[in-house]
Amino acid sequence: MHYIYIIYSLSTDKYYLGHSSDPWKRLGQHNSNEVDKFTGKYKPWELKAIFQVSEKKGDADKIEKFIKKQKSRNLILQLINIDFIPTGVLAQLVRVPHVRN
User: Fold this and answer.
1) Are 47 and 99 contacting, i.e. CB atoms less than 8 angstroms apart?
2) With b meaning 16 or more CB within 10 Å and e meaning fewer, what string describes 31-66?
3) What are phi and psi of 71, to 5 degrees?
4) Is residue 7 within 8 Å of 46, Cβ to Cβ?
5) CATH number, domain with residue 47
6) Is 64 helix (H, G, I), strand (E, B) or coil?
């Protein structure tokens, strides 16, 4: 299964959205990466939301690109809001109810 995840840097008030087959492991990689162009600069990161997308990596790629293309912090804030129900292109997102640390 492939997931869309949203992480947040409290120290810089920045969000990052990505996709992975294991978002919990990926969070660890973001927090341990010293040289990454974006996430390496703004550590530590905490997981804010995870959405199940599809068995196909390409579907997760498309959703990630669509969200990033919007360039909208408001959209990210809507996605992390537990009461938000995705519609349209985002309708296939299924919130993962339990975010592990």
Assistant:
1) yes
2) eeeeeeeebeebeebebbbbbebbeeeeebebbbee
3) 50, 50
4) yes
5) 3.40.1440
6) helix
* Residue 96 to residue 52: CA distance in whole angstroms: 6
User: How many domains are contained in the chain?
Assistant: 1
Cα separation, 34 vs 59, whole angstroms: 29
The type of residue at 97 is: P
pTM score, whole prediction: 0.90
pLDDT of residue 25: 94
Q: Is residue 53 part of a domain?
A: yes
Q: Would 100 be classed as within a structural domain?
A: no
What pLDDT is attached to residue 36? 65
C-alpha torsion 21→13→46→17, nearest 10: -10
* Averaged pLDDT in 10-residue chunks for the chain of 101 residues: 96 96 93 81 93 94 96 96 94 81 48
* C-alpha dihedral sign at 8, 48, 59, 88: negative
Instruction: Give the range of the structural domain holding residue 65, as residue numbers without chain letter.
Output: 2-95
